[in-house]
Amino acid sequence: MQAWLCENPVGVDALIWKELPTPVPQKGEVLIEIQAASLNFPDLLIVQNKYQMKPALPFVPGSEYAGVVQALGEGVTHLQVGQPVACLSGTGGFGTHTLAPAALCMPLPLGFPPVDAAAFIMIYATSWHALMDRAALKAGETVLILGAAGGVGTAAIQIAKAAGARVIAAASSEEKCELCKQLGADATINYSEHTPAKGLRDVIKQLTDGKGPDVIYDPVGGEFAEPAFRSIAWRGRYLVVGFASGPIPSLPLNLTLLKGASIVGVFWGDFARREPTANAEMMQTLASMYAKGQVKPVIDQTLPMSELHKAYEIMGSRSVKGKLVLVN
């Protein structure tokens, strides 16, 4: 097998494409021949030694991928050789083969292409867990989605619309705002046209007739967090999903009192670990929604696995709409 190996986590440039022995699955594992792997923000942080999970060196990055089961380890009974699966295991995806915990593999139904499957689990599981579980989103409520043209943002638009919510999508360019409208957003906000402290609050107020959004979905953090939170509706829920912009914001806690609002943490990975039955039911629901055409990953572009460095460069430029996927 071949894979991109991280021997020293000092950045993307240190990744080397290497020939490695094809591993043999141990108890509870499967060997997967990888067909496609998507690029997620943690995949950048992990090779810079900035991610919360720090795997033992050397390791193969690539948290999310799809492919075909090639061999089964002892005790694996719910999968079979030749079965297409998707997996989000944290590492291993940027290569031709990988070992994966069988418990983390999602069997794929017919008609689920590997490119879509490789871009599915992280963004839809995160967004469903955030909106439907943590925020208890109801039909008729208004959701403000920050970073709406990115992977989790595009998934959040689709899930919120399927739930019957009104969606305001915020993104950094007119092109990205147009994509959000195509996905079903009822209104859009172009960040570049507003100063954070006042302009964003004014336009949110205007788009909600002064009420504010019932739910704010924030995978971005940074300078827009506080003005967005100041705009939230009474009993609103502010979802802390991530910090793609870099800085982790500090919110004045008196705002939660004044608004009767909640700041809600979203950590889908630990939810899946702590509540595996609920997570499995959620994934079945999402697979059914895909089959019905209610959700579908937005694929910005696909690149050969050999062009991983180029894919990282594109992601770092903040120009990606939806997901980048590498294919073998």
TrEMBL record:
Its EC number is 1.6.5.5. Gene3D superfamilies: Medium-chain alcohol dehydrogenases, catalytic domain (3.90.180.10), NAD(P)-binding Rossmann-like Domain (3.40.50.720). It comes from the Bacteria. InterPro entries: ADH-like_C, ADH-like_N, ER, GroES-like_sf, NAD(P)-bd_dom_sf, Quin_OxRdtase/zeta-crystal_CS, Zn-ADH-like_protein. Residues 11-326 form the Enoyl reductase (ER) domain. GO terms for molecular function: quinone reductase (NADPH) activity. The keyword Cell wall biogenesis/degradation does not apply. PROSITE patterns: QOR_ZETA_CRYSTAL. Pfam families: ADH_N (PF08240), ADH_zinc_N (PF00107). This is NADPH2:quinone reductase. It comes from Hydrogenophaga palleronii.
